[in-house]
Amino acid sequence: MDADLNWLFARQRFGMHPGLTRVRALLSRVGNPQRAFGVVLVGGTNGKGSTAAVLAAMLQADGRRTALFTSPHLTRFNERFRVNGQELPESEVAAALARLRPHAEATDATFFEIVTALGALLFAEAGAEVAVMEVGLGGRLDSTNALDPVLSVITNVGLDHTAVLGDTVEAIATEKAGILRSGLPAVTGVVGGLLPILRATGAGVWALGEELHPQTRSLGWRGAEVDLELPAGSVAFQTPLLGTHGARNAALAAAAALRLGVSPAAVQQGAAAATWPGRLEVLPWRGGRILLDGAHNPDGARALAAALVDLQVRPLPLIFGVAEDKAVAEVVRALRPHASRVILTRAVLSPRAAHPDTLAPHFAEVPVTLTDSPQEALAVLEAYSAPLALVCGSLYLIGEVRPLLLGHSGEGRERWQ
């Protein structure tokens, strides 16, 4: 597998080339495996992964053999491919990638196009009945959109990846609306003036605050209780996802599940069982706890800050690192009031990571320590003996910190996507 994975990861450097021609050609060459199962597409600026994970857990609880495709992975490549909650074995992923490689080379497919086709091939061979597919970037021209969904989810729309998707929320909403299909169901957390952009596609959109009415009650570190009213009835459930946005994402997943015919009992069971690593995830470390969150854009940072308030967390030590192309000033503006001191670092495997020196001026009013790696950052943190600390920013940073906390080995390959 190493040779094929090294070849695949090297293709990250060729960048992203939006469009569906190559991925459709690639899927056709391997027999269009995506036609063997139903597809749910989950797009949005933030919350895609957690919403997809909760929805997959609900479908599984309903007795359906359910696949889950997510990106990026945190630590291991095969995290991207799960069936009934289990990562597919490396041997299966390796065998499928080896078969896919000559077709990918013949079509000049990009990294994410290959990964999407690989997921379709794996899920078909695993006998999946339905696959919940997290959209990579945007929607209209994302390679996952080569798959025909039976239902689509758009969690929200915010400013991120503006160089590719456009520099207004209206432009980004238009791109994300590309995963909707006329006459087919959809659920969304998009509100206000952007909602007509989604409805113009002709999809049967149910939106939070209009057709969908969730009432949430925080359970603190245990998550939240959610009462959801929708045209098809109502359902009440508990979710371990933290923060108001976690409960909101779980509500969207529940609405999607109910529209797919999942029973209320399975919605409750799946919601209670679903977790999502690296997003408001609490791990024990050195007698205390560390909160991990991949908040890397302004909306994500504001959601994290709101969750810290909800959890009654006082200012705490913060390990922070982010990609250099992000809106760092806005991200830091949301997080700075919650930091007692800051340890700046970078994901060493990510060439896009901002150097800690460039981040320091954004934390002018907080004590700052600069480090060159996640290992060094954790060593500095350990000296503080804090009962609770926060690591946030780039998901690639989370992906390097998490195995250090768990005593696992990392993947060691350069990360771009």
From TrEMBL:
Annotated InterPro entries: Folylpolyglutamate_synth, Mur-like_cat_sf, Mur_ligase_C, Mur_ligase_C_dom_sf, Mur_ligase_cen
Enzyme Commission no: 6.3.2.17
Keywords recorded for this protein, A-Z: ATP-binding, Ligase, Magnesium, Metal-binding, Nucleotide-binding
Family: Belongs to the folylpolyglutamate synthase family.
Species annotation: Deinococcus aerophilus
Protein name (database record): tetrahydrofolate synthase
Keyword ATP-binding among UniProt keywords: yes
NCBIfam families: folC
One protein family per Pfam: Mur_ligase_M
Primary gene name: folC
Catalytic activity: (6S)-5,6,7,8-tetrahydrofolyl-(gamma-L-Glu)(n) + L-glutamate + ATP = (6S)-5,6,7,8-tetrahydrofolyl-(gamma-L-Glu)(n+1) + ADP + phosphate + H(+)
Record-annotated Mur ligase central domain positions: 42-257
Chain ranges of the Mur ligase C-terminal domain: 278-394
